[in-house]
Amino acid sequence: MLFAGVSTVIAYFLASGLRPGREARLAFPGVTNDRFALVIEETDAAFDADRVRRVLEEHNAVHVEERAEEDPA
């Protein structure tokens, strides 16, 4: 039972790419200290990026950035 548990943890770390000494891939500096990142995906035709930006800025967002990602398919 112990061997199965330890093997599962090791397999998880190998599959996720978490290894000792590996540098973290953070979107922004400070995201793990005193800030967090919020990802909003556009999945609806009625999505209004300008409205989302206004709402975030009205609530004192420190940084708002819009990114477009390539379709992996």
Condensed summary:
The protein is mainly alpha-helical and 73 residues long.
Number of helices: 2
Main beta-sheet strand count, sense and barrel state: none
User: What is the residue-mean pLDDT, rounded to a whole number?
Assistant: 84
Look at the helices and sheets and give the structural class. mainly alpha
Span between termini: 40 Å
Query: Would you identify the regions where 5 or more consecutive residues have pLDDT less than 50?
Result: none
Helix and strand string, N-terminal first?
HH
Shape type: elongated
Rg, alpha carbons: 19 Å
Strand content: under 5%
The count of DSSP E runs of length 2 or more, i.e. the number of strands, is: 0
Query: How much helicity do the residues have?
Result: 25-40%
Please render the helix and strand layout as text.
Elements: H1 2-16, H2 49-58
Any overview of this molecule?
0% of the residues are buried. It is elongated, with a radius of gyration of 19 Å. The model has no long low-confidence stretch (mean pLDDT 84). With 73 residues, it is mainly alpha-helical. The longest helix has 15 residues, at 2-16. It has a domain at 25-73. The protein is built from 2 helices and no strands. The termini are far apart.
Features:
single chain; 73 residues; mainly alpha; 0% strand; elongated
